Amino acid sequence: MSTLDKENISAQELSDFLQEIFRQDQSDPARTKAYDCHEKLLARQGDFLGSELEDAYWDSLSREALHIAQIEAAMKHDHESALKYVRLALDYAGRVQSGFYTFDWINYLKGTEAYLLSDAERLQAIAEGCDANRNVLQNLLRGLRQSGAPDYARDYSAVSAGASLQDLMPQENIEHLQRLLNLENIGRADPTEVAWQLALHHYPELAEVVREKDTSSRFDGGSIVCPLNEDEPVGIKYNNFDLSVIEELMQHRPKSVQLVAERLGIPRESMTPLLLKTFIFLHEVGHTYDYITRFLRPLREGQDPLPKTYATADWRTRFQDELAALPIPNMAPSQLRMFSIFAPLPELARQQGAKEEVIRRAEQDAEAVLQEQEEAYKRGESEQRADDFATKILREDILRNNA
Q1: Taking the domains of the chain in order of start, what are their residue ranges?
Q2: Is the pTM of this model over 0.70?
């Protein structure tokens, strides 16, 4: 490509390309599209070198290389090939300029490398000094010590498959839930499933809600699915996050974690990935409860001929009003944070019609403005009601002996 052609490629075009790579990667929970994403990124290397998005480019390559390594190790059981891709991911990460992200990502890669080399001593040292993904590395270490050799499919899956209510609460809480819900093996059950049963126990109105797992985004906990007509059900899409993703979220959004801990009346250090995952799920359930009881029920009781249609219209009006009042208007915090990876925050703020003072603050401290966006969003009525719902169930049932 000529220098002239390269100059004609806009930063927005490069940003759109990285966003498309991200969406393609996330569209398959098994990350099998990482091979194609990796090749597409390599083909555009010349466009990114020397651009303002070069760091984001190397970071994307690093993550795709790791996803390939995970597939090689977990699905193909080819640890030698997996090790090659982990080292490639390290090479890409090493080209990112200091300050683009913390060294936890590099440590995570080095820990995975140590695991594939069966170096338990080095893996332990790395895990102890790692904040994000520590849970993953500790599970890899545990599996390595038990068998003496790596088995990535077994040891990595322990991060999510081993997560249960026994990891979240003392035995007396589990016995309380056993009496309350009369479910067998409740201690080893997925906390989100138990949380759903608790919600149904307390609020039978939720019986009409249809649940659907959604893993299309690492940034969203989920969403209510409002019916567009009388034939559609009230729904909820929720992200059944792997705990390693929750750990990463806890590192990058400490203020949010602190706010949840304060709501639950527990110390910040008592907030675990498992507990936060359960809160996020119940928060989304809370939105459906709010929709049913405050928007849909009055119309049904008034014998409106189109209760769902009008309830959804009213719900969306309130939500749009709340979004319009944010520092950077009409963009939810999770969406804003995702796009800010690929485009400068001041530019996004300007595109969304933010006030000049917000744009200036974004130029000075982008992370502070992202936090402002999140805090303003959380103060909205719909978010407050969803948080109240999640807090009530967690404090009265799951944390009843810990508060």
Answers
A1: 3-161, 165-398
A2: no
Cα(54)–Cα(127) distance, rounded to whole angstroms?
29
* CB 296 within 8 Å of CB 307: yes
Q: Quick count: other Cβ atoms within 10 Å of Cβ 136?
A: 26
SS (H, E, C) 291-342: HHHHHHHHHHHCCCCCHHHHHHHHHHHHHHHHHHCCCCCCCCHHHHHHHCCC
Rounded-to-integer distance, Cα 257 and Cα 244, Å: 15
Q: Would you state the structure tokens that stand for residue 398, as one six-digit string?
A: 């799951």
In DSSP terms, 235 is beta-bridged to 210, 225
Q: In the sheet where 235-238 sits, what is the strand order?
A: 210-213, 235-238, 222-225
pLDDT in tens, 49-60: 998 889 889 988
pLDDT-based confidence at 400, cuts 50/70/90?
low
C-alpha of 342 from chain center: 17
* Nearest of 276, 281, 285, 159 to residue 221 by alpha carbon: 281
Q: pLDDT over 90 for what percent of the chain?
A: 43
Residue-wise pLDDT for 359-399, tens only, equals 999 999 998 999 899 889 989 999 999 999 999 998 888 77
- Calpha distance 111→331 (Å, rounded): 36
